[in-house]
Amino acid sequence: MADKKWAMVYDANKCIACQACSVACRVENNVPENLYRLQVQMEGPNGVYPKLGMNFHRQSCVMCNNPPCVPVCPTGASHINNEGVTLVDNNKCIGCKYCIVACPYKARFVNSVTSAADKCTFCWGTRVSKGQKPACVEQCITGALLFGDLNDPNSEVNVYLRNHHHILSKEHLNTKPKLYIIPSQRGGVKA
């Protein structure tokens, strides 16, 4: 059987920017104050009164299949595991910040506690490797986040993607993200 290839779907139509995902991420991963592996950013209001709307955008690592952050790492701390998850080995990271500069998604930062590069890991070490969903997906109250195996044609992610128009952030960079976005149809410009 082929290795799993994990992916996430963010449906901007279901997101209400409640930040439950961000809080769950902070707690699950012991993210220091004023730093974020994940944020939901708000844009708007858009439109003309009385038809106004807000748009929401997930800001996090997009788990590239072709990540620019990995080849620039001089120690091999930044790497992709056999299930397609981009990770950072804190014991190998020297804090050079090459990976932070290389990331076109601005999804990395230096963890003030570990002094190593940090980012979303799909909760690999604490949840996914143990058969659970990432904390953000588990706590999403509206079902805006889905998680599953791209190698399984019947996974929740693949079924959803077959039935919904989706985009990939900065697709022109050929990073081949595994965070699929269902663009908002509320107010503003439609994708």
Q: Can you give a write-up of this model?
A:
The chain is of the alpha+beta class. It has a domain at 6-66 and 120-182: Alpha-Beta Plaits (2-Layer Sandwich), CATH 3.30.70. Helices cover 15% and strands 25% of the residues. The chain contains four helices and ten strands. The strands form four sheets. A four-stranded mixed sheet has the order 8-1-10-9. The protein has a two-stranded antiparallel ribbon with strand order 2-3. A two-stranded antiparallel sheet has the order 4-5. A hairpin with a 5-residue loop joins strand 4 and strand 5 (86-88). It is globular, with a radius of gyration of 17 Å. The mean pLDDT is 94.
* DSSP, total strands: 10
CATH class of the domain at 6-66 and 120-182: Alpha Beta
Architecture of the domain at 6-66 and 120-182, CATH level 2? 2-Layer Sandwich
Strand order of the largest sheet: 8-1-10-9
The end-to-end span amounts to 37 Å
Q: Can you tell me the residue ranges where pLDDT is under 50 for at least 5 consecutive residues? A: none
Percentage of residues in DSSP E strands: 25-35%
Helix share of residues?
10-25%
CATH level 3 topology of the domain at 6-66 and 120-182: Alpha-Beta Plaits
Q: What's the average pLDDT?
A: 94
